[in-house]
Design a protein that fits this description.
Strand content: under 5%
Largest sheet: none
Number of helices: 10
């Protein structure tokens, strides 16, 4: 009788005046309803501002690093391309693959050095998420982003100089992709 009507967000759990249900259809007690809403909200946050800020921030770092160390960036993108992450994205994204997360942390460190934590904190503050979530997001994205760049480098026979030229040509586009309110200037300042 009238079941299945969804709220404005399309979720039956958020229908006005209707009890919130878990995945099995059982009604959630009051506290669990609140927790479920918070859980759904947090999941949305990772797909929204955090991702919108993390991708161009990561690419900005790659471009910035390549202007002073194109050989180092060349090695990082080849490493990411050879990791196999692009061949198994669903396995990587679906299961918290520790090997790939470690690779991501290593890539982030190779790009941002001692300012890796600053980047995580900037993304976290911008998106309103925990610093550990920002760090995990960046560690997940780095092998993918650098793997795509590395695959392009390898398939087009680019060397370190060619990679530097390619990245330099994308600097304005990546800068424009940075969302308003995410200021990365502290990352580029000398310590």
């Amino acid at each position: 009788l009238g079941g299945g009507r969804a709220g404005a967000d399309g979720c039956a759990e958020h229908s006005a005046g209707r009890p919130q249900r878990d995945r099995s259809g059982a009604r959630l007690p009051g506290r669990q309803r609140v927790r479920e809403r918070v859980r759904l909200h947090r999941r949305q946050d990772l797909r929204g501002p955090a991702l919108e800020g993390a991708v161009p921030a990561l690419l900005s770092g790659v471009i910035n690093k390549s202007s002073s160390d194109s050989s180092g960036v060349f090695d990082l993108v080849k490493q990411a391309a050879g990791s196999g992450v692009l061949d198994n994205l669903s396995g990587f994204l679906g299961g918290g693959n520790s090997t790939m997360m470690n690779l991501g942390s290593s890539l982030i460190s190779g790009i941002f050095g001692s300012k890796s934590n600053m980047l995580s904190n900037l993304i976290s503050s911008f998106a309103g998420i925990k610093p550990s979530s920002g760090n995990s997001l960046l560690s997940s994205l780095a092998p993918i982003a650098l793997g795509v760049i590395g695959k392009h480098v390898l398939s087009n026979g680019l060397d370190a100089r060619g990679l530097g030229n390619l990245l330099s040509s994308q600097k304005d586009a990546v800068s424009k992709a940075l969302p308003a309110g995410l200021n990365l200037s502290g990352l580029w300042a000398d310590p």
